[in-house]
């Protein structure tokens, strides 16, 4: 339903949505947009990377200097030289950014300003009149592209094995500091602040009721939305609830063999998550290397290929996400979400309890949420699904499976 308290902005939004010729805001308009006076307008946007930037990327990849291989040249020491070289060659010689750009621009995109920060987002409305609005949040090292293959499944369920009552109006923002929601204009953009920004965005679009979904850092935003519990939020669905042992030995009495397996997976992840420590403490230090070297960016983003464990992502999906970071020069600003969340956590307060209806989808090749811990921190988990196929980037790996969970979770909350 439309927000009747915002008639002027909604009339403006309807006007730009109905125009047959959409004004273009390309990537070269970033600086001009950054200096505009703050307003609540919603402006159409297209991705148009200048050819000179593509040529510069190819030249840097052609002239790259690679690190000497570590012993064994496998993933034991981090991203192996052979893998980085292969990916760099494919990025330079085979990857077609223009095809990705064309796919992006088939969907309506917009920018608006909230708290002085430009927010870029897809907004794709369903033809179904009773569709439920949903905001989808990505994390690092993903981008808004994580959800591009999920859009049609959600917007047009009848054409994709569902029923009309499964339809969603889809909003996919780029998290502040990521991709085209840049440059980052201020500090303090924690997951909690981003969650509040999403509520402002959804209401600015005229949505009085909506749902939320997130994965990775987007799961943190999704839970923060649950904690905020703004009027109109019907529920939040996530791929991970990052709840850990409190130190109480009694907690372990409830754990199943599967839970102990999940603890082992967690320990393995933490042993390799050096990026998290760096981005949580010195994001600007690593930013300089990532801004200058596409090869360094590929290696730094090793989480997107599961630290070498493998997943169902294609090479094109990996390189498309890397390209978003490269062309927008946002590796450093994206890392600040870790920094801001770590700064909030330093206050040492116990984790607040989320009372909002919550759904969780656990995929086998991922950090696996442990339900006994999750229910301690989220006391209204009303949906739980476990999948044998898929992983950390389920929206890209198995979009149909994730879509099915979203349909089922929100069916009872519409």
UniProtKB/TrEMBL annotation:
Top-level taxon: Bacteria
Signal sequence region: none
Domain Epoxide hydrolase N-terminal: 42-147
InterPro entries attached to this UniProt entry: AB_hydrolase_fold, Epox_hydrolase-like, Epoxide_hydro_N, Epoxide_hydrolase
Gene Ontology BP annotations: epoxide metabolic process
Keyword field: Aromatic hydrocarbons catabolism, Hydrolase
An MF annotation (GO) of this entry: epoxide hydrolase activity
Positions of the catalytic residues: 216, 338, 392
Family that this chain belongs to: Belongs to the peptidase S33 family.
Protein name (database record): Pimeloyl-ACP methyl ester carboxylesterase
Source organism per UniProt: Microbacterium kyungheense
């Amino acid at each position: 339903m439309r927000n009747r308290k915002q008639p002027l902005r909604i009339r403006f939004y309807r006007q730009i949505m109905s125009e047959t010729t959409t004004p273009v805001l390309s990537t070269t308009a970033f600086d001009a947009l950054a200096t505009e006076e703050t307003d609540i307008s919603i402006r159409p946007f297209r991705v148009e990377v200048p050819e000179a930037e593509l040529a510069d990327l190819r030249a840097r990849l052609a002239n790259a200097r690679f690190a000497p291989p570590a012993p064994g040249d496998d993933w034991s020491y981090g991203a192996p030289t052979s893998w980085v070289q292969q990916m760099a060659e494919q990025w330079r010689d085979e990857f077609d950014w223009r095809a990705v750009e064309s796919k992006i621009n088939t969907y309506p995109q917009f920018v608006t300003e909230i708290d002085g920060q430009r927010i870029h987002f897809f907004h794709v409305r369903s033809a179904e009149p009773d569709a439920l609005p949903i905001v989808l949040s990505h994390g690092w090292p993903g981008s808004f592209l994580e959800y591009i293959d999920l859009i049609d499944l959600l917007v047009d369920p009848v054409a994709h094995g569902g029923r009309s009552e499964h339809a969603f109006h889809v909003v996919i923002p780029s998290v502040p500091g990521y991709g085209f929601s840049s440059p980052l204009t201020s500090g303090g953009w924690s997951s909690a602040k981003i969650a509040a920004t999403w509520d402002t965005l959804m209401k600015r679009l005229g949505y009085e009721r909506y749902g939320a979904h997130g994965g990775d850092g987007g799961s943190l935003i999704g839970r923060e939305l649950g904690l905020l519990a703004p009027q109109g939020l019907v529920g939040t669905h996530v791929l991970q609830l990052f709840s850990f042992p409190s130190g109480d030995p009694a907690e372990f009495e409830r754990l199943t063999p599967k839970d102990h397996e999940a603890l082992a997976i967690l320990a393995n992840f933490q042993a390799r998550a050096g990026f998290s420590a760096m981005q949580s403490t010195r994001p600007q230090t690593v930013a300089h290397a990532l801004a200058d070297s596409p090869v360094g960016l590929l290696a730094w983003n090793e989480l997107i290929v599961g630290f070498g464990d493998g997943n169902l992502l294609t090479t094109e999906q990996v390189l498309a996400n890397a390209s978003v970071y490269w062309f927008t020069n946002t590796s450093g600003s994206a890392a600040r979400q870790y920094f801001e969340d770590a700064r909030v956590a330093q206050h040492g307060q116990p984790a607040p309890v989320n009372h909002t209806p919550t759904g969780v989808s656990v995929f086998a090749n991922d950090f696996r949420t442990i339900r006994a811990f999750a229910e301690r921190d989220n006391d209204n988990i009303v949906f739980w699904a476990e999948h044998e196929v898929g992983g950390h980037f389920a929206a890209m790996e198995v979009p149909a499976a994730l879509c099915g969970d979203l349909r089922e979770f929100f069916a009872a909350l519409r």
